[in-house]
Structures are given as C-alpha cells and as structure tokens.
Write a structure and sequence with these properties.
There is one protein chain. This protein is α/β, with parallel strands linked by helices. It is built from 8 helices and 11 strands. The strands form 2 sheets. Strands 3-2-1-4-5-11-10 form a 7-stranded mixed β-sheet, sandwiched between helices. Strands 6-7-8-9 form a 4-stranded antiparallel β-sheet.
Length: about 260
C-alpha cells in the first residue's frame, strides 16, 4: 500500500504561510494580541536600537512596537504575511522597514542592538544544523553587547497538544473560514513534528476555496537550547517562562523566553 502519510506531508511546501493562512492569522492574532507586548516593550526600552524581528509575519508584534516609537525592522519569508503587515501599517500611518527572507538567508547591511524571535517562530527551523546556523547569523547581525530574544515552545509541545481539531472564524465580509488540523508525522528522535492544516472558505453555505498548509516544527530541550546558544557565541544566557521575568520555570509554561548577549 502507498504511504499516505508521506503523501500528505509532501502535498504542500513546508511552512509556506499562504494567503488564507495569513488571513486567518490576523483574525486570530491581530496586532497587539498575545501576552508578550509589554515584555518586549520593557526589555527593549533600555536598549539602543535599531531592533530586528525575525519572522515578523503579519505585524502582530511589530505594529505595537512601531506605535511605541521603536526603530524596528523585520523579515519574513511569506509575502502573504508581509502583505497583511503592510496593510496594518498603512491603516495606522506607520512606515515599515521589512524584507522578504527567511531564517536561512536573512542578511542586513547594519548591526542591531537587539534581535527578537517571538512566540516560538524559531521552532519552524526544523533542522538542528540550520537552526545553529541561524543563531550564528543572529550573532553576526548584533552589535557587541547586543541582545538576542528567542521564545520557544518546550519539548513537551511535541505530544502535549491535541493531534486533531477544527477551528473557525468569520471574516468582516461574512465568509466562514475553517481549519482542520492533524499531525501527519511525529519523530521523537529528531524532536520534530509535522502537522497538516486544511483551510476552507465557506460562503452562503458553499465551499468556495481551499488551501493546504504543512507545518514542521523542531522543539528543544531546555539545556540543549542553552548549549546551542553558547555554541553560536552567546553568553549571559537566561530564561523565564511565559514572559514572567524572575519567576522560576514551571512545567505548565507554554513558552520558554530566552535572552542572550553577544559579548563585547
């Protein structure tokens, strides 16, 4: 029999973030959503810019940071996500400084006072060697004394969340958008999980559009990521859970929030 799981995983490019995905992302997580805005405003408030956000996406974090007056730049590999970011900036009269690139090839002609990789986006680099290379590139793009902020999901993310589910949203125009999700690959040896998300647009009771997204993540052990940061050249490494600085980590934490410094 054919390997249908492999066929599903290969049905769409990994971590594409297409047009419907970007639309749903804004409905689910508009600019200012989630609990990290105050954390980053405070953390960057005492640092000298400019600042760079990796995988800035639709501007969920970038837009509030620009509104707060930060000299804030970004990159993302999805043109559809960047289009949402530009739309949000235009609506607010903000000037964007973004480029289309990914963790594997980003490059800037300036150095930054801090680099931010929020809400687990770094786990989308689903290969260890590629992740280490990205961390080294972060190190190169920071000024001496510059600070790196990387949020990652704990290792337990691989198995802790439900393997299947259906979610839905209603667009301002009245369309119903639905996602059906399931895991098609789970490899505990490589700490990698692949999920398939099927996006559907319903209008007047009729299915009018579909989009398939295949997302691969690589999760990290706590000490593993600390050691990898050191291997990439970073020092003064610290971590907190769910943006609660100074609180000991808990098994219930959904994010490990790492900070690290490029030595002088």
């Amino acid at each position: 029999m054919p390997d249908t799981t492999a066929n599903m995983a290969n049905a769409s490019p990994l971590n594409r973030y297409g047009e419907m995905c970007a639309e749903v992302y804004v409905l689910d997580k508009p600019p200012g959503a989630l609990g990290d805005i105050d954390y980053f405003r405070e953390a960057l408030g005492g640092l000298e810019g400019p600042f760079l956000e990796a995988a800035c996406g639709s501007g969920r974090l970038m837009i509030p940071m620009l509104e707060a007056g930060f000299d804030y730049h970004g990159f993302d590999h999805s043109e559809h996500m960047l289009a949402q970011c530009r739309r949000a900036a235009d609506q607010r009269g903000l000037t964007l400084k973004v480029q289309r690139s990914n963790y594997q090839d980003f490059a800037f002609d300036q150095l930054f006072g801090a680099i931010v990789s929020p809400v687990g986006s770094f786990t989308l680099v689903d290969d260890f060697d590629a992740a280490l290379a990205a961390l080294r590139r972060f190190h190169q793009q920071l000024r001496p004394g510059g600070r790196l902020f990387v949020d990652i999901m704990p290792l337990g993310y691989l198995t802790a969340r439900p393997l299947e589910g259906v979610r839905s949203w209603t667009t301002p125009g009245g369309d119903l958008l639905r996602i059906t999700s399931n895991v098609v690959e789970l490899d505990l040896l490589t700490q990698r999980r692949v999920s398939q998300d099927r996006y559907e647009r319903w209008r007047g009771g009729r299915l009018v559009e579909q989009e398939l997204e295949v997302l691969a993540v690589r999760c990290w052990g706590l000490k593993e990521f600390e050691l990898t940061l050191k291997e990439a050249g970073f020092a003064d490494i610290s971590v907190c859970g769910d943006y609660k600085v100074g609180r000991p980590l808990r098994t219930s934490d959904r994010q490990w929030c790492f900070q690290a410094v490029k030595p002088l």
